[in-house]
Amino acid sequence: MKIYIHLLAFLLSVSWAAAQPPDLDAWVARTMKTFEVPGIAVAIVKDGEVVAARGYGVRKLGESAPVDANTIFGIASNTKAFTSAALAMLVDEGKIRWDDPVINHLPQLHLHDPYVTRELTVRDALSHRSGLGLGAGDLLYWPDTTFTRDEVVARARFIQPASSFRSRYAYSNLMFVIAGQIIPAVTGKSWDDFVRERILTPLGMTSTRLSSVGLRPEDNAAYPHSRGWRLRGTLRPVPMQRNDVWAAAAGIQTSVNDLSKWIIVQLNEGKIEQNRLLFSERQQREMWAATTVVPISNVIEPLRAVTPNFSSYGLGWAVRDYRGRRIISHGGGLTGMVTTVQLVPEENLGIVVLTNQEESGAFSSVLYHILDYYLGAPYTDWISAYEAARSDKLHRAETAEKTLSDARAVHSRPTLELARYAARYRDPWYGEVSIKLEKSGLVLYFEHTPGTIADLEHWQYDTFRAVFRDNTVPDAFVTFFIGADGKIGSVKMEAVSDLADFSFDYQDLHLTPAP
Fold it and tell me: Which domains are present in the chain?
């Protein structure tokens, strides 16, 4: 069905129509209670109409301001589809090609392997097959750092690959930061200005922001909430992250009303109105084409039905199947918020679920309940299924951590006096990390990440456990390697638990004493 832009305002005024799950309100309420989510927003687009666009709960615990259809949430990696679309528009205009080497447009780009520097294409950068490891380089912008976008691109050269080029899938925010910088190189406009002028304004996405920078307390914005990285503490509001540096990968803040407009254009093959395109159907096929194979993980029995037969990544979109239909989708996760956008082209169906808590089981429970309704699938209690999956995940992580603790040499002592561990250390891609001896003991500081401060508790031998004062930052083991001369030669870090988000890529740091 062709959708014209002058109909959008009318369509979006239809909050609840008959073509939606009749128990949706009750289902969302049960989901929020089960997973302790303060606020959720849901939108459903079917056959070109917005049949649901509604908020539930509150924006912030302890306050009464409600979530509504215009409340903005950080959609994190759902931003990647916007960056891909922006580049698709440049492909349509003949200014770039998907298979252009990135260095044709960013000659300042250098990666660790000169071959990859020369061969990396725009398509590679958008499909997670660069050879970098999972989340490599994320500490350059998350948690909040002092780096600029250009500095992030410059430091990419020091990050060592984890696999050979194009050999496997490994999710990479860094590559999308790099891809976003192609836009100013080609157009003279920043990623932010281009996306605002060429996507948000034509679609009438008036409440959307391109990062969290500038948000005010009085704005209609959901606040992030967290129990801490262990997922066991008391739920509390946490500060919003400043995501302008990696905006092309994860910056957009938007509402279900605005995302409904985005979905309508996606399902309408890039058409805004009869003779006006956001991007061509040809480029949409490119973005939705399976480009990189994504391994399929084993899941516990209650979630068997959501396990796909195929899973892949296109250009800014994930491509998989569910109950015989192709699903075009993406998820997004920030500290205190997780979200999803799902498209079922065969059914002309789009679904958005935004939450202000970091429980992915909450948005998944709502998503699959809606999908099953439209696909005519038998009833499944997805809330109970995802609650069981959450319990299994926590149990496995806690069992693994207990095993580590039980094997610990509790009576061992550090090789050196504590004062000799205190020094400045440097990693080639991140930069400086300092360890200081204070009254409380050794304290770790990430120099470019002001909020990332940890107390070092002796674990065993020359390994300490970094316990970060911000409990949303996961603990890490810090191991000092001492040479034959009795001096510290290098320091390695690794996350203590599998519950640590992959963006805390401590394991990629190669710290050595700074001169």
Answer: 5-72+204-396 (3.40.710.10), 418-513 (2.40.128.600)
